[in-house]
Design brief:
The protein is an alpha+beta fold. It has four helices and five strands, in the order βαβαβαββα.
């Protein structure tokens, strides 16, 4: 399934297409029901947003995603590292070797100027997509039980 939105979201399949789960629920013992509910570009958007706040290494990015999402979202290493590499290749983030708080060397990722523009563009696309979905699938408050 492909979404027709300008930018990153337009060309990428759903997270669960292609055989591997990218995001999983950490609050339930079962996997989320296909975060199909999320477009592939969502992971990139989340990563860009997280590193926009401050430079972080991959493990800290993963923990921040889990924390900010209220323990609902987590990303596997098998998906996180390729996504970070792709964003680095796009020029949206840059990596710099530094020493972690535990004294280990790790790549710290930070947002570049083109990355900031991509984040703004993809945030706008996400808001459009989320707004359209909420029109089709209204929340309980929006459902009239007559």
């Amino acid at each position: 399934m492909l979404y027709k939105l300008p930018g990153l979201l337009e060309r990428l399949p759903l997270l669960t297409e292609g055989g591997g789960d990218i995001l999983a629920s950490v609050t339930e013992s079962e996997r989320m029901s296909k975060p199909a509910d999320l477009a592939q570009g969502t992971l990139d958007l989340l990563l860009l947003k997280i590193v926009a706040l401050e430079p972080l290494h991959a493990w800290a990015i993963s923990q921040r995603l889990k924390q900010i999402s209220g323990e609902v979202l987590q990303v596997s290493d098998g998906c996180l590292y390729p996504a970070l590499h792709k964003l680095e290749q796009e020029g949206w983030i840059k990596a710099e070797w530094k020493v972690t708080e535990n004294g280990r060397r790790a790549k710290f990722y930070s947002l570049t100027h083109p990355g900031r523009r991509a984040l703004e563009r993809e945030t706008t696309n996400w808001e459009r997509l989320a707004g359209a979905i909420s029109q089709v699938v209204p929340t309980q408050r929006g459902i009239n039980h007559a």
